[in-house]
Amino acid sequence: MSKRKYKISVIQLNLNDVAENNLKKCISWVRDAASQGAEVILLPELYSSHYFCQSEDVDNFALAEPLYSTSFIAFSELAKELGVVIIVPFFEKRMAGIYHNSAYIIDADGTEAGLYRKMHIPDDPHFYEKFYFTPGDLGFQAIETKKGTVGTLICWDQWYPEAARITALKGAEVLFYPTAIGWHPKEKEQYGENQYGAWMNVMKGHAVANGVFVAAANRIGLEKYIDGTEGIQFWGASFIAGPQGEILAQASHDKEEILIAEVDLDLQENVRQNWPFFRDRRIDAFGDITKRAIDK
């Protein structure tokens, strides 16, 4: 059962390094977050490597790991030692030819509370994720942990109100979004402010529409490893928002940081009592939402 108040944290990092170094780095930062009182801690998307989806290259499948191997072992031991919940996004090798963009939800005793596989897979310039990832097949989930009931969605999932709604309706108090999003350097001047603003606004909207806390952990830094390209400049700006979309903590665009904020379930209940969006939903009129398009 969730405590009425608990502290959550997002960690914003530059992860443009090899897996061993990224693992050591993340372990160190999780320790720091726990020492500051964090009880549920979120890492950025695909924490263990640079963002390899900038190209379609079969060699990158070597970065994947089977379930319950390196990442799970390391963070399970850490979660148990520190008594915290850790959300660990990783590149999952399910079997030969089937890979997922996944996240462990590791409970405070080191056991697996849940596993989430990214449902929505993008295919954009330098975000060629459809080449690597099979769409998730575990659905949207609210995971009970020793600290609270949480939902995990991953990056591209953040643009879909249906994903946030279902996860909240299942009981998630917080929507955690591990993320790897940034600017194409040549587009930043013209489109950058609007792109970043849209990213913030859509997730703040999920918080408001569902009366939930929202936490997003992004990368920082320019990741440029393909000849003839400008790479991706990850824009950071990780944040935690409350159930009215209010910003409780916000990171910079370019620094490694730990954000911490308090989840207050009494506040959440009060917000939902005064803005009863769940009560007033016309579920009898929503059948068309399951259609690809509503043809005339």
From TrEMBL:
Keywords: Hydrolase. InterPro entries: Aliph_Amidase/BUP, C-N_Hydrolase, C-N_Hydrolase_sf. GO terms for molecular function: hydrolase activity. Residues 6-265 form the CN hydrolase domain. CDD domains: CPA. It comes from the Bacteria. The keyword NADP does not apply. This is Carbon-nitrogen hydrolase. It comes from Flavobacterium ginsengiterrae.
